[in-house]
Amino acid sequence: MQHLTPAGQQVVGDLAARYGISTDAATHMLIAVLNGQGSMAQFSHPEFGGSGQWMRGGMTMVGDMFNYGLKNLVDNLCSEISNILNNQPGLLQTGSFQSQSQSSGGMSTGGMPMAPNSLFVPDPRSQWYPAELGRPNSSGSQNNARYAYFANAHRLAVDVGGDVAVYDTLDHQIGGFSQQQGSGGSISFSSQYGTVNLSSLPMLSRNGHPVAPAAQNPAYNNPAPAPQSAPQGHQGSSSGTADSSAVLSALEKLGDLKAKGIVSDEEFAAKKADLLSRL
Fold first, then answer.
1. Which residues, 6 or more positions from 154, have their beta carbon under 8 angstroms from its beta carbon?
2. SS3 for the chain, per residue?
3. Are 165 and 157 in contact (CB under 8 A)?
4. In sequence order, which residues have a C-beta less than 8 Å from that of residue 28 and are 6 or more positions away?
5. What average pLDDT does this structure show over 28-44?
6. pLDDT of residue 174
7. pLDDT tens for residues 168-193?
8. Which of the four, 79, 109, 184, 276, has the lowest number of CB atoms within 10 Å?
9. Residue spans per domain, the chain
């Protein structure tokens, strides 16, 4: 359930006074328009004739269908609320994550905290990405993965099964996200360069800990350490055992990356073949 900030209460009070309705009715319609992403509202309140529907630029329906004065009031009220919501930065989301649930600003399921002067109190349980990133431009989820995109900061936060990683989006202008079928499917995004795999972005941090550039994706970027020549007189089985252990360790890390959706099936197969050839 959404809770209003002092600024939100002031907006509701102003709407109630100017339209001659109660603050409860104004709050009800505010949330209804919010749930309709600013373009529609399904409401049910006695002051609006019971159940009804509003669509921006379309038909307005109220329970008292021949009460044209009430229809006009609802249309004007919803249109003004729509303008208010659209002027709240980041409140109405435009990003997409194919076949995924989209977050709506101020809603506890969206994971998007509002600015201090916004209309709704943020739900602290929704803060899964680093707070210093601010408010995402878009967010969404699918299966066991969710994302938050911060266009101005050039950052992308991705949570896969509780494993939160932050990426540098470089010069990509991200317009949408998708995940291959299944909870372990790889994540990709669309930008001005087409469809891009998430693993191509530099990882900056993982679960709150900075990631060194050379170790962003150890098994993917550097599957196994380069063989080191053993001191003369000590070459033989010990060196072979060390190399084999390194390869097996890299294989385990590679499998973990695939399970988390960071490496695609094709990338996994190619790297696995390369590693096995070193045994």
1. 168, 169, 170
2. CCCECHHHHHHHHHHHHHHCCCHHHHHHHHHHHHHCCCCEEEEEEHHHCEEEEEECCCCEECCCCCCHHHHHHHHHHHHHHHHHHHCCCCCCCCCCECCCEECCCCCCCCCCCCCCCCCECCCHHHCCCCHHHCCCCEEEEECCEEEEEECCCCEEEEEECCEEEEEECCCCCCCEEEECCCCCCCEEEEECCEEEEHHHCCEEEECCEECCHHHCCHHHHCCCCCCCCCCCCCCCHHHHHHHHHHHHHHHHHHHHHHHCCCCCHHHHHHHHHHHHCCC
3. yes
4. 43, 45
5. 91
6. 86
7. 999 998 887 777 655 455 788 888 88
8. 276
9. 6-86, 101-214, 217-276
* Cβ atoms within 10 Å, residue 277: 8
The residue whose two tokens read 């990683």 is 165
